[in-house]
Amino acid sequence: MQKKYILGVITLSACITLTQVMPAFAGIIGHSSASYYSAQQEAQAVQPQSNEFKFLRTDMYTYQDMENDINLLKNQYEGVTSDSIGTTPDGRSIYRITVGNREASKKILVVGAIHAREYITASVVMRQVKEMLDYRRNGDTTLDRVCIQYVPMINPDGVAISQSGIDGLIKEESKQKLQAIIDSWSDWGLKENQDKYNWFLNKWKNNLNGVDLNHNFPTQGWEQRGDSRKKPSNEFYKGPSGGSESETKDLMKLVNDENFDAVLNYHTQGQIIYWSNQHASAEVLAKDKAMADIVAAHTGYKLVAPEADGSKFGVGFKDWLDWEKGIPSVTVEVGIGTSPVPETQIETIWQQNAGVLPDIAKYVLGE
Ligand SMILES: [Zn+2]
């Protein structure tokens, strides 16, 4: 069955809501067709050994930039570790960064870029790593009492597609898989119209398999959840089964292993906060709301009304946390316009979101 969505939310956020009709082919925002394939080459050409964090810049933030920055964080600060929670179909490591007290009873998870075209959130999460480390360097002792884990880019294959198209992929079989998905939507005119072709890839939201990871979590609502695409595509497709995707499984395993006390999910766009879930217990819901209020106090973002949260047949990461795991979480939609939001928005986004994580940590600690 198809679920009807509340129109007001569709205008606010392209992220969680489900568009039921064939989309309008918007022009490419941020990347002209001419610069589409050269963007990554330019990024790679910018001194890979630089001592400056690339997440502090205002140009496109790539997987390679993140790898450089993780190493730089480990070089410049004590107590930073990183590992991989899984390997994607195209062969990328899904990095986890850990700071704080590994023995602490309280644990927080921060996740970015589950939606590919929302890759600016990876640099937001990376800034949050540095933020906590700077707090400690300046004498704050919060990290003595909490362990914070960050997965800045849970969907790196999808990010590569959104940023660089087919050439962003590593394996030949990956390129063939993406080409097959493109060919399967040829009735949209993707071959005849370069703008439509660029739109399809630049707006890529899914993983390499063409599955929307945030529609792929195996909640009790998964079977009934509507699916406007019904086959691999650049957005929305929920997959062949709940939890079918390796990235979904990797994130679920991390949560099951670590049993976090709170989770922050970063998405774009709309400057709004999803916090509620009709299947959450009263206790979890109260914590969801408390965290949302903290985020709102810093950012000025509006809380999405519970009747518009889409949780009835919710299949996103937050739905799974609220409904199946009883772990409080909020989903923060940063940026304005359409995704990928222009890179220059990072400065405004950071002005809004600086201080959020330190205060969430204090809340989790009851301080
Ligand atoms: Zn999203």
Automatic annotation (TrEMBL):
GO CC, alphabetical: extracellular space
Segment forming the signal sequence: 1-26
Record-stated family: Belongs to the peptidase M14 family.
Top-level taxon of origin: Bacteria
Pfam families cross-referenced by the UniProt entry: Peptidase_M14
Region (Disordered): 216-247
Active site: E333 (proton donor/acceptor)
Alphabetized PANTHER family for the sequence: PROTEASE FAMILY M14 CARBOXYPEPTIDASE A,B (PTHR11705), SLL0236 PROTEIN (PTHR11705:SF143)
UniProt organism field: Lachnoanaerobaculum umeaense
Entry keyword annotation includes Signal: yes
Domain spans labelled Peptidase M14: 59-364
Protein name in UniProt: Peptidase
